[in-house]
Design goal:
The longest helix has 25 residues. Helices cover about 45% and strands about 10% of the residues. By secondary structure, the protein is of the alpha/beta class.
Length: about 180
Amino acid sequence: MRTTTLKVGVAALALTALTACTSSLESGGESTDEGRERADAAAELVDEAKAVPATDDLGDPIDVSSLAGETIYSIPIDSTAEFYTAGERAMAAVAEEAGVNYVTFPSDGTQTSYQQGIAQAINAGASAILLNGPLAETLGPSIDAAKDAGIPVIPLHISDSEGEGTPGSSTRPTPPSTRPPA
């Protein structure tokens, strides 16, 4: 078996080398103007793709003035991970500018910490809970408790939370206008 595998490998390597030599001979072994043009065009496309997108084409601003004074809890998948730390700082800065109290729960990547974060948000009377990484499907009872308290839970890692409600929850979202008083 080893001998057969070795023979197949050597044959494939030889065929590859011969093909490369044939291609090199067909083009004279030198680069062509067409090849250089293609390489330059490809390099230009790569450089364009490296550019940081402009923020002047994001559409009309959203009026968030009605959220001033509200408290939003964010529960990242791991609050110490660099990606989430940077994102949480950016969201907190935007929230502060809008007059929103933004709380990042110090989760450690465990189900228990996500459950504790949701419980803390409920006890604090949060206006909304953002699941920034934890899968809603794994937190059904906690999400149901938040919704029973009238607090919407918004999973940030899915494309649409409309319709049947938050994944993992047995209840539909409670509209803010019908939330019980804190």
